[in-house]
Design goal:
There is one protein chain. It is built from one helix and nine strands, in the order βββαββββββ. The chain is mainly beta. The longest helix is centred in the middle third of the chain and has 4 residues.
Length: 95
């Protein structure tokens, strides 16, 4: 196993950020948010962690990468549910 840090920038300081991965793209509605503007680009994402954005608007989590992720491409997005804000979709290939 190895460690992997994920960070999101330009978040409202003090906001709780949720980090989500998925193996496939798609669309997932965020309850209470506009479906046309705020849907995740992930199919059946799971929550791998949350973090509070610091005073500079940066939220970071560090996680162990499980062996099952080896040789996989994983899609990541972050969201701030209370603001209906989502990050850009990021793809990462684990070796």
């Amino acid at each position: 196993m190895s460690l992997r840090a994920e960070a999101v920038r330009n978040v409202t300081p003090g906001a709780r950020v949720t980090f989500l991965p998925s193996r496939t793209g798609g669309g997932t509605h965020i309850p209470g948010c506009d479906l046309q503007r705020n849907a995740l680009q992930l199919d059946s994402p799971t929550i791998i962690g949350t973090a509070i954005a610091d005073g500079s608007g940066v939220a970071t989590i560090t996680r162990n990468v499980p062996p099952v992720a080896r040789n996989q491409i994983i899609l990541f997005q972050a969201m701030v549910p209370g603001e209906c804000a989502i990050s850009q979709l990021v793809l990462f290939g684990f070796e």
